[in-house]
UniProtKB/TrEMBL annotation:
It comes from Paraburkholderia atlantica. Pfam families: ABM. PROSITE patterns: ABM. InterPro entries: ABM_dom (IPR007138), AI-2_Isomerase_LsrG (IPR050744), Dimeric_a/b-barrel (IPR011008). The keyword Cell inner membrane does not apply. Keywords: Monooxygenase, Oxidoreductase. Residues 4-92 form the ABM domain. The keyword Oxidoreductase applies. Gene3D superfamilies: 3.30.70.100. GO terms for molecular function: monooxygenase activity. This is Antibiotic biosynthesis monooxygenase. Coiled coil: none annotated.
Length: 96
C-alpha cells in the first residue's frame, strides 16, 4: 500500500488548553513506537493557541487503522472528549 499522510486538528474548549496539550503530548511517545509510523509531530497554532495540529505520515492505511485502535489512542479519546471544542482529521496522499 502507498504511504499516506494525516493532518489532525484539535481545538480545545476555552480554559482547557493545557489539559488538552498535556494529553496530546502524552500520546506522542507511544505512537512513535508503533509499527508503520514514519512521522508523528505535534504543533500548536501560533495565532490560535487553543488549536493543536498533528502532522503524520504512515506506511499504509492499515498502519493508521491500527493506530486508531491502539490502547493509548482509545484512552486519550476517552480522557479528552470533554476538553475538545472541534476536531478534524484529514487523510491525504502526496501527489507532487
Amino acid at each position: 500500500m502507498a504511504e499516506i499522510a494525516v493532518v489532525a486538528i484539535s481545538v480545545a474548549k476555552p480554559g482547557h488548553e493545557e489539559l488538552l496539550r498535556e494529553a496530546l503530548e502524552g500520546i506522542v511517545g507511544p505512537t512513535r513506537k508503533e509499527a508503520g509510523v514514519l512521522q508523528y509531530d505535534l504543533h500548536r497554532d501560533v495565532q490560535e493557541p487553543r488549536r493543536f495540529v498533528f502532522v503524520e505520515r504512515w506506511e499504509s492505511q492499515d498502519a493508521l487503522a491500527a493506530h486508531a485502535q491502539s490502547a493509548h489512542i482509545q484512552a486519550y479519546k476517552k480522557a479528552a472528549a470533554d476538553w475538545i471544542e472541534h476536531a478534524e482529521i484529514r487523510v491525504v496522499s502526496k501527489i507532487a
